[in-house]
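User: Hi! I'm a student and our assignment asks us to look at how structure tokens line up with a sequence. Could you show me two examples?

Assistant: Happy to help. In each example below, the sequence comes first and the structure tokens follow. Example one:
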Amino acid sequence: MAEPAQQRDARDKLALLLSLIPYLMDHDSVPVKDAAAAFEVTPKQIRDAVHLIAVSGLPGESRAYLAGDLFDIDWDALEDRDTIVLTHTVAIDDTPRLSAREAAALIAGLQYLSALPEHADRDAMASLMAKLERGTAAGAAQVAVTPAGLRDTIATVRAAIGDHTQLEFDYVSARGDSERRSVDPLRIESVNDDWYLRGWCHLRKAVRTFRLDRIDQLVKTTRPISEHAERVVLPERLFQGSPDDLTVSVDVAAATLPLIADYVPDDAPREPDGDIVHTRVRVAHYHGLKRMVARFAGQLTVTAPPEARAAVAAWASAGAARYAETTSADDEEG
């Protein structure tokens, strides 16, 4: 049975009204023609909706609609300049707001989604993130965002992913070796403060993960990605094991274990001991432990093998010595 035209028209007017109010609140001053274009309706429909807004509101304690209980607009601006300006809103500011922590979690999720090539409408996500920031009770808590030094790199990688073209760059491995790589970019994503590119490496003939802060001389080519990349199904885990990986035993705080889950092999033991878990992690090189130990200082301890403990101890001793030198120099200057 077809919906009556009158009922459908009332529903459309209500939908326009509910959408128009937050739109006007996000804009200090909006020409009627701009609002009409934004909602794909006629200027007359916008003016009719504005007049309806002006007689909408919530009754006060007296259960009567007094002046302060209704929306209001700048009538002179509407009549003289055909411009809409809200001068008073009702109940909107009284609605429950997200906490700073809740907004930060949503923003972080949107940042992750915007990094995936299948989500192309990044402008809409950026607009939503801005609204979440403004709509919190006390401003969103700070979350990991693109470091300033990597913005150009991330923009170039995203452009190549969107265009399905290859990248070329110099890459410094964890061992300090530098090689020129040709890569079919597949995905860019972040873990804590670090950003990574996953793609088909033509040098290694396999999928590899590259840390963006180790990439230099990045070039977006016009060569299309290879058939290998088109057939690749990326695993859920960011860090994949390799036959050349080294296994290291660690004691890690139970609350921290999920944060290093990508480094823990599936067959590794997870033995709880109070607030500590005895387990193993895999690394490409013992030097790679330095970053992990630094990030989780006081929460992760390397227990074996001796070579791994020695590498971390030497790094920590060198850092302490450097700190002592700096402190001594400052004292002399003082």
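Example two works the same way, sequence first and then tokens:
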Amino acid sequence: MTISPTAPEVTTAPLLSAQDLHVTFPGRHGGPRARAVDGVDLDIRPGEIVALVGESGCGKTTLARCLLGLVEPTSGRVTFDGRPLEYSGRPLKAYRKRVQLVLQDPSGSLNPRHTVYDAVAEGLRIHGYGGDERTAVAGALSRAGLRPPERFFLRYPHELSGGQRQRVVIAGALVLEPELLVADEPVASLDASVRGEILALLLRLRTELGLSALVVTHDLGLAWNIADRVAVMYLGRIVETGAVEQVLTAPRHPYTQALLSVLPEAPGTPVVLTGEPPDPSRVPSGCRFHARCQILASGEAERTGVADACRNQDLKVLSGGGASQVACHWAVAEVPERGAGL
């Protein structure tokens, strides 16, 4: 199912912005610290849907948790609506009302002992909502596509289908009238027949409510169907970003090319990456992807004259804006007029 999102104007000031963000965790048994997020700039504008794409362990979930205020950055900062995010007290509580999380597993995120009504109303009660709770819950369920909402009030999660449970989770986020949703693999646990319905719902909410969204996923097909812009993450850093059509139809970074090559509809032979999966406690020198890079392994980087740079010269952090950018010595050497992306 192909859905055509309507992108916002690129001149709009960011709603959420990460600037030179780093998150490290203590190493095992006193070893080197794990650099889960290792220098990230990322902007999300009002009404924009950004897909954050990468394999497991690349740091995308840690980045999302940091943007939500669940993890405090080691360095760098997050700003929302022009103001730096505070990680304690009332400001953080107020922020979490404006930025809501949608988890990938509705069965795990819904309390089996709570009715649908209580699950959706929980956020209102936490934040001391002073209006008509029943009306707010009914409105959120209706916007999430569960109609008539009263029919679902007294149901329990086990009485619902997977798609209905995910809609309840989305309703629980919508009831607080947020400005931004962070959706972590929002359709990963759903049947293929339901995935398109949930993606269409997220797009409709963007159109009707002006919601922004960060969609965290390893699924490039999902990014194609829902996002305005895509950011490809590898070993703690964004290595390619730009409009979704541009990045996914003409990928410039070898890692993006490898991810796309294994899609069922991709032409040619899938790229099999060599080497070990990335270890955030041992980030290699030079390009962090060079140990697994098919361009370097094939000799193409040597022929282009960038092999030494790939192994030894670090790349700058990509800016958080909407311009097409790539952090790759070979890609810039191949298309020098686009070198400003570094």
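Here is something you could point out in your write-up. Residues 251-341 form one domain.
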